[in-house]
Structure formats: structure tokens, C-alpha cells
Design a protein that fits this description.
120 residues, rod-shaped, single chain, mainly alpha, 2 domains
């Protein structure tokens, strides 16, 4: 159990945080949030200009005209919330086995032990 406390938790966390699937999904979510924030900010600014100057502001040529960024952001959030990481499936199976420490060691070998064996 000591292995799980000392090495295992760090290995599990590292594997989850460094997973390619998580990286891609978070990057997609950040882009969608940035685009939505830009579009909403532009729309709000245009609204203030129209009200302040009492003129019609033509937004038809703006990059945000007719683009529904809210839907893209909602889809990115849903993708993030439903993200499946293959390493989590392996961990789940290992934790349900009788010798979960041995199973976790197979998934996340102790790098220090591996380095020591390579040096010998």
C-alpha cells in the first residue's frame, strides 16, 4: 500500500493530467470560450455604440456576424464533461482486482526501480 501512496498517486495524476485526450479537449474548450467571449464582447460593445450615438451600427461585416458562438461553446463544454480517458478505464479495472497494487504497478511502473535495474 505504501507504493500506492508514494508513487502510485503521483503516477495516476501525471497520467491523467498529461493525457493527449485531455490536452486536446481543454485546448478546444479554451478556443471556444475565447471565441464566444470575443463575439459576446463585440455584440455588447456594438449595442453600447448604437445606444450612445443613436445611430445604426453596421455589424454585418464583422467576423462575429451571424456566428453562433454560444452553441460551439456549449458543445465544447459537453465534450469536456463527457471526456473518456483510456487510462481511467485501466485504473478502474485495476482497483477492482484482488491485488490492485500489483495491477497499478503494471500500469504505472516505478521509474526509480526501472532506472536502478537499467544501471545494474
Amino acid at each position: 500500500m505504501l507504493w500506492l501512496k508514494e508513487r502510485g498517486i503521483a503516477s495516476v495524476a501525471e497520467s491523467v493530467l498529461n493525457s493527449e485526450e485531455l490536452d486536446k479537449t481543454v485546448a478546444h474548450l479554451l478556443v471556444a470560450a475565447r471565441n464566444d467571449g470575443y463575439a459576446q464582447g463585440y455584440a455588447e460593445c456594438s449595442h453600447h455604440v448604437v445606444n450612445a450615438l443613436k445611430v445604426d451600427w453596421d455589424t454585418s461585416k464583422s467576423a462575429t456576424h451571424g456566428v453562433n458562438t454560444e452553441v460551439a461553446l456549449a458543445a465544447a463544454k459537453m465534450q469536456f464533461n463527457n471526456l473518456q480517458l483510456p487510462v481511467m478505464d485501466l485504473i478502474d479495472v485495476a482497483l477492482h482486482s484482488e491485488d490492485h497494487v500489483a495491477q497499478l504497478k503494471e500500469i504505472f511502473p516505478d521509474r526509480q526501480e526501472d532506472e536502478d535495474e537499467d544501471l545494474a
